Each structure stands twice: as C-alpha cells, then as structure tokens.
Amino acid sequence: MSKTYRILLAKTGLDGHWRGVAVVSGALRDAGFEVIMMGMSTVDEIVQAAVDEDVDLIGLSIGGHVEIAERAIKALREEGVDKPIFAGGVVPPWAKRRLEALGVDVHPPGSQLPDIVAAAERLTGRVATGADA
Q: Could you tell me which of 26, 69, 106, 112 has the fewest CB atoms within 10 Å of its CB?
C-alpha cells in the first residue's frame, strides 16, 4: 500500500487574499497529495493542526506577514513538530533570506506550480514521478 503524503496549508495573515493558496492547494491535490486547507489561522491553530493532522509538510501562505510566519515556525519547533516547511505569497527578498535562514523553502510571487509541486515532493521524500513512494 502506498503512503499518502499530507500537507497542511495555512494563511498567516487575515488579508483575505486566497487566490494563490487556493491554486497551490489544487495543484498539490492534482499531484496526489492530501491537502488540509486551514485558511486564515493563528499561530496556535497552525501548531495544533500540524500535531493533530500528523502532516508530512507545512505550507504557509505568508502574504507579507513575515513576523507571524516566523512566530509560527518557532512555535512549531518548540512543540516538537520537526516537519519541513515551505512558504509562499508576498515574500520580499529580505524576508526570503530570513525564512531560508530558518530552513524554510520559499516560493515568492512568480513561482511556477510545477516547481512548487516538485518542492513538495522533495521535502516530503515522495518519488518525483508523481507515484507515491
């Protein structure tokens, strides 16, 4: 039986910009991932969902809310959630550098869906052909 890889997607800001995270969610589902879409979430909600849902990867749509994303990453690590994290949305170059220094795989505006799916495959360890490992 093949493993189904689970990805948690959450928005770290209350800005209401859904298009990007919705499109990424669809691309990941089309690629065979199970996506738990949280929507706009607090740091505590993100941490609790990551623990409860036993996810393989955490995706943060940061929409320019870098400090909130950093708090979420810190809280996840403090809770013992040692899963890879990727982030996207409005990510200025200075924020990309800060997030990458925390071990986050960053996909700023203009990132291509095949590249995001490939990153999810790489970060979860799933076979890059689209077949589950």
A: 112
Residue 19 in any domain: the answer is yes
Contacts of residue 8, defined as CB under 8 A and 6 or more positions apart, other chains included, come to 36, 38, 46, 49, 50, 53, 55, 57, 58, 59
Closest CA to 7 of 129, 96, 75, 26: 26
Each residue's pLDDT tens digit, 58-116:
999 987 788 999 999 999 999 999 999 999 988 889 999 999 999 999 999 889 999 99
Angle at which helices 66-78 and 43-53 pack, to 10 degrees?
A: 40
How many domains is the chain partitioned into structurally? 1
CA distance 80 to 109: 30
Task: Examine residue 68 and state whether it is found in any structural domain, yes or no.
Answer: yes
113-132 pLDDT, tens digit per residue, is 999 999 999 999 996 544 44
Q: Where are the beta strands (DSSP E) in 17-97?
A: 34-40, 57-61, 85-88
Looking at the whole model, is its pTM more than 0.85? Answer: yes
Structural domain span for residue 18: 6-124
